[in-house]
Amino acid sequence: MTETSNYSDLTLTPAEMAPYIQHTKIDVGATRAEMVAHAQEAISYGFNAAMVPASWVPLVAAELAGTGIGIASALDFPTVGVMTSAGKAAEAAEIARLGATQLDIGVQLGWLKSGMFDEFREDIAGVVRASGIPVKVMLELPLLTDAEKEAAVELAMEAGASYLKNASSGQIETANPASVRFLVDRARDGVLVKASGSIKGYAQGLELLRAGAVLLGTSAGIAIVTDSSDENTTSY
Protein backbone atom coordinates (compact mmCIF):
# COMPACT_ATOMS: atom_id res chain seq x y z
CA MET A 1 0.00 0.00 0.00
CA THR A 2 2.91 2.36 0.56
CA GLU A 3 5.32 0.98 -2.05
CA THR A 4 4.47 3.27 -4.97
CA SER A 5 3.95 6.98 -5.51
CA ASN A 6 1.77 6.72 -8.66
CA TYR A 7 -1.50 7.65 -6.99
CA SER A 8 -2.96 10.31 -9.30
CA ASP A 9 -6.26 8.42 -9.62
CA LEU A 10 -6.32 7.12 -6.06
CA THR A 11 -9.79 6.78 -4.55
CA LEU A 12 -10.16 6.17 -0.83
CA THR A 13 -12.90 6.52 1.73
CA PRO A 14 -11.86 8.41 4.87
CA ALA A 15 -11.48 5.15 6.81
CA GLU A 16 -9.33 3.67 4.05
CA MET A 17 -6.84 6.51 4.50
CA ALA A 18 -5.75 5.18 7.92
CA PRO A 19 -2.89 2.96 6.64
CA TYR A 20 -1.24 6.06 5.15
CA ILE A 21 -1.38 8.10 8.36
CA GLN A 22 1.36 8.39 10.96
CA HIS A 23 -0.70 9.16 14.07
CA THR A 24 1.30 11.88 15.81
CA LYS A 25 1.40 12.97 19.44
CA ILE A 26 4.33 15.10 20.49
CA ASP A 27 2.60 17.39 22.99
CA VAL A 28 4.80 18.78 25.73
CA GLY A 29 3.76 17.23 29.04
CA ALA A 30 1.79 14.33 27.55
CA THR A 31 1.21 11.76 30.29
CA ARG A 32 1.73 8.02 30.37
CA ALA A 33 -2.01 7.44 30.17
CA GLU A 34 -2.27 9.72 27.15
CA MET A 35 0.53 7.91 25.36
CA VAL A 36 -1.07 4.53 26.03
CA ALA A 37 -4.35 5.89 24.67
CA HIS A 38 -2.51 7.20 21.61
CA ALA A 39 -1.08 3.75 20.91
CA GLN A 40 -4.49 2.17 21.35
CA GLU A 41 -5.96 4.67 18.88
CA ALA A 42 -3.35 3.61 16.34
CA ILE A 43 -4.53 0.03 16.78
CA SER A 44 -8.24 0.85 16.74
CA TYR A 45 -8.11 2.89 13.54
CA GLY A 46 -5.36 0.92 11.79
CA PHE A 47 -2.90 3.77 11.35
CA ASN A 48 0.46 3.19 9.68
CA ALA A 49 2.42 4.17 12.79
CA ALA A 50 2.30 5.99 16.09
CA MET A 51 4.69 8.96 16.03
CA VAL A 52 5.83 9.77 19.58
CA PRO A 53 8.70 11.46 21.44
CA ALA A 54 11.75 9.27 21.98
CA SER A 55 11.17 9.20 25.74
CA TRP A 56 7.89 7.34 25.18
CA VAL A 57 9.13 4.88 22.55
CA PRO A 58 9.56 1.90 24.94
CA LEU A 59 6.03 2.27 26.30
CA VAL A 60 4.44 2.67 22.88
CA ALA A 61 6.52 -0.18 21.43
CA ALA A 62 5.22 -2.47 24.16
CA GLU A 63 1.63 -1.40 23.47
CA LEU A 64 2.01 -1.99 19.74
CA ALA A 65 3.96 -5.25 19.94
CA GLY A 66 2.61 -7.81 17.50
CA THR A 67 0.19 -5.40 15.78
CA GLY A 68 2.30 -4.58 12.72
CA ILE A 69 1.90 -0.87 13.42
CA GLY A 70 5.11 1.10 13.26
CA ILE A 71 6.71 3.02 16.10
CA ALA A 72 8.06 6.32 14.78
CA SER A 73 9.98 9.03 16.56
CA ALA A 74 11.74 12.28 15.71
CA LEU A 75 15.27 13.53 16.28
CA ASP A 76 16.84 17.02 16.19
CA PHE A 77 13.31 18.40 16.36
CA PRO A 78 11.29 20.63 16.80
CA THR A 79 14.17 23.08 16.40
CA VAL A 80 16.17 21.46 13.63
CA GLY A 81 19.92 21.44 13.18
CA VAL A 82 20.89 22.11 16.80
CA MET A 83 22.51 18.76 17.68
CA THR A 84 26.05 17.66 16.98
CA SER A 85 26.35 14.94 14.36
CA ALA A 86 27.91 12.55 16.85
CA GLY A 87 25.18 13.19 19.38
CA LYS A 88 22.55 12.77 16.71
CA ALA A 89 23.93 9.40 15.63
CA ALA A 90 24.19 8.19 19.22
CA GLU A 91 20.61 9.19 19.98
CA ALA A 92 19.42 7.58 16.75
CA ALA A 93 21.01 4.29 17.78
CA GLU A 94 19.40 4.50 21.21
CA ILE A 95 15.95 5.32 19.82
CA ALA A 96 16.16 2.30 17.53
CA ARG A 97 17.34 0.10 20.42
CA LEU A 98 14.33 1.19 22.46
CA GLY A 99 11.98 -0.06 19.77
CA ALA A 100 11.43 2.62 17.14
CA THR A 101 10.99 1.25 13.65
CA GLN A 102 11.16 4.58 11.82
CA LEU A 103 12.92 7.87 12.51
CA ASP A 104 12.22 11.41 11.26
CA ILE A 105 15.17 13.79 11.53
CA GLY A 106 15.90 17.49 11.27
CA VAL A 107 18.79 18.64 9.10
CA GLN A 108 21.60 21.16 9.33
CA LEU A 109 20.08 23.96 7.25
CA GLY A 110 22.84 26.37 8.22
CA TRP A 111 25.48 24.00 6.87
CA LEU A 112 23.55 23.62 3.62
CA LYS A 113 23.25 27.40 3.25
CA SER A 114 26.98 27.72 3.96
CA GLY A 115 27.88 25.35 1.14
CA MET A 116 29.05 22.70 3.63
CA PHE A 117 27.55 19.93 1.54
CA ASP A 118 29.79 17.11 2.74
CA GLU A 119 29.00 17.91 6.36
CA PHE A 120 25.27 18.18 5.60
CA ARG A 121 25.28 14.78 3.89
CA GLU A 122 27.34 13.07 6.57
CA ASP A 123 25.09 14.39 9.35
CA ILE A 124 22.22 12.45 7.77
CA ALA A 125 24.32 9.45 6.81
CA GLY A 126 25.53 9.07 10.38
CA VAL A 127 21.94 8.67 11.57
CA VAL A 128 21.15 6.20 8.78
CA ARG A 129 24.16 4.03 9.70
CA ALA A 130 23.68 4.25 13.45
CA SER A 131 19.96 3.55 13.56
CA GLY A 132 19.60 0.82 10.97
CA ILE A 133 15.93 1.78 10.48
CA PRO A 134 14.21 3.84 7.76
CA VAL A 135 15.08 7.52 8.10
CA LYS A 136 12.79 10.33 6.93
CA VAL A 137 14.54 13.64 6.30
CA MET A 138 12.63 16.84 7.11
CA LEU A 139 13.86 19.25 4.44
CA GLU A 140 12.01 22.44 5.48
CA LEU A 141 11.50 23.40 1.84
CA PRO A 142 10.02 26.90 2.45
CA LEU A 143 13.23 27.96 4.19
CA LEU A 144 15.40 27.10 1.16
CA THR A 145 16.18 28.78 -2.14
CA ASP A 146 15.48 26.85 -5.32
CA ALA A 147 19.12 25.81 -5.61
CA GLU A 148 19.23 24.79 -1.95
CA LYS A 149 16.11 22.65 -2.39
CA GLU A 150 17.73 20.77 -5.24
CA ALA A 151 20.94 20.26 -3.27
CA ALA A 152 19.11 19.16 -0.13
CA VAL A 153 17.15 16.50 -1.97
CA GLU A 154 20.22 15.08 -3.68
CA LEU A 155 22.36 15.12 -0.56
CA ALA A 156 19.66 13.46 1.53
CA MET A 157 19.33 10.64 -0.98
CA GLU A 158 23.11 10.26 -1.22
CA ALA A 159 23.13 9.92 2.57
CA GLY A 160 20.71 6.99 2.42
CA ALA A 161 17.42 8.61 3.37
CA SER A 162 14.43 6.32 2.87
CA TYR A 163 11.92 9.18 2.79
CA LEU A 164 11.92 12.86 1.87
CA LYS A 165 9.62 15.20 3.82
CA ASN A 166 8.52 18.67 2.80
CA ALA A 167 8.69 20.07 6.33
CA SER A 168 8.81 19.19 10.01
CA SER A 169 5.48 20.77 10.98
CA GLY A 170 2.80 23.29 10.14
CA GLN A 171 4.96 26.02 11.64
CA ILE A 172 7.15 25.68 8.56
CA GLU A 173 4.64 24.75 5.87
CA THR A 174 1.10 23.55 5.39
CA ALA A 175 1.55 20.35 3.40
CA ASN A 176 0.50 20.89 -0.20
CA PRO A 177 0.51 18.98 -3.50
CA ALA A 178 3.13 21.26 -5.09
CA SER A 179 5.75 20.48 -2.43
CA VAL A 180 4.93 16.78 -2.57
CA ARG A 181 5.25 16.69 -6.35
CA PHE A 182 8.56 18.57 -6.15
CA LEU A 183 9.96 15.76 -4.01
CA VAL A 184 8.30 12.92 -5.92
CA ASP A 185 9.68 14.20 -9.22
CA ARG A 186 13.22 14.11 -7.83
CA ALA A 187 13.08 10.95 -5.73
CA ARG A 188 15.16 8.04 -6.94
CA ASP A 189 13.76 4.53 -7.13
CA GLY A 190 13.05 3.28 -3.62
CA VAL A 191 12.97 6.74 -2.04
CA LEU A 192 9.48 7.70 -0.91
CA VAL A 193 7.76 10.92 0.17
CA LYS A 194 6.02 11.78 3.43
CA ALA A 195 3.86 14.90 3.68
CA SER A 196 3.74 16.80 6.96
CA GLY A 197 2.39 20.09 8.26
CA SER A 198 -1.14 21.08 9.30
CA ILE A 199 -2.87 18.15 7.60
CA LYS A 200 -6.34 18.48 9.06
CA GLY A 201 -8.92 16.94 6.76
CA TYR A 202 -9.82 14.06 4.48
CA ALA A 203 -9.88 16.05 1.24
CA GLN A 204 -6.49 17.61 1.96
CA GLY A 205 -5.01 14.22 2.78
CA LEU A 206 -6.35 12.67 -0.40
CA GLU A 207 -4.86 15.49 -2.49
CA LEU A 208 -1.45 14.86 -0.94
CA LEU A 209 -1.63 11.13 -1.60
CA ARG A 210 -2.71 11.75 -5.17
CA ALA A 211 0.30 14.05 -5.57
CA GLY A 212 2.55 11.13 -4.67
CA ALA A 213 2.99 11.09 -0.90
CA VAL A 214 2.82 7.62 0.61
CA LEU A 215 2.62 8.77 4.23
CA LEU A 216 0.87 11.63 6.01
CA GLY A 217 2.18 12.93 9.33
CA THR A 218 -0.63 14.45 11.35
CA SER A 219 -2.08 14.77 14.83
CA ALA A 220 -5.58 15.00 13.31
CA GLY A 221 -5.67 11.42 12.09
CA ILE A 222 -8.89 10.49 13.85
CA ALA A 223 -10.69 13.54 12.47
CA ILE A 224 -9.43 12.65 9.00
CA VAL A 225 -10.46 8.99 8.98
CA THR A 226 -13.86 9.77 10.50
CA ASP A 227 -14.30 12.76 8.14
CA SER A 228 -15.20 14.93 11.11
CA SER A 229 -12.77 17.82 10.61
CA ASP A 230 -14.15 21.32 10.99
CA GLU A 231 -12.87 24.88 11.43
CA ASN A 232 -11.73 24.05 14.95
CA THR A 233 -9.57 21.09 13.94
CA THR A 234 -5.85 21.62 14.52
CA SER A 235 -2.79 19.62 13.55
CA TYR A 236 0.94 20.07 13.78
Automatic annotation (TrEMBL):
It comes from the Bacteria. InterPro entries: Aldolase_TIM, DeoC, DeoC/FbaB/LacD_aldolase. Gene3D superfamilies: Aldolase class I. NCBIfam families: deoC. Keywords: Cytoplasm, Schiff base. PANTHER family: DEOXYRIBOSE-PHOSPHATE ALDOLASE. The keyword Transcription does not apply. This is Deoxyribose-phosphate aldolase.
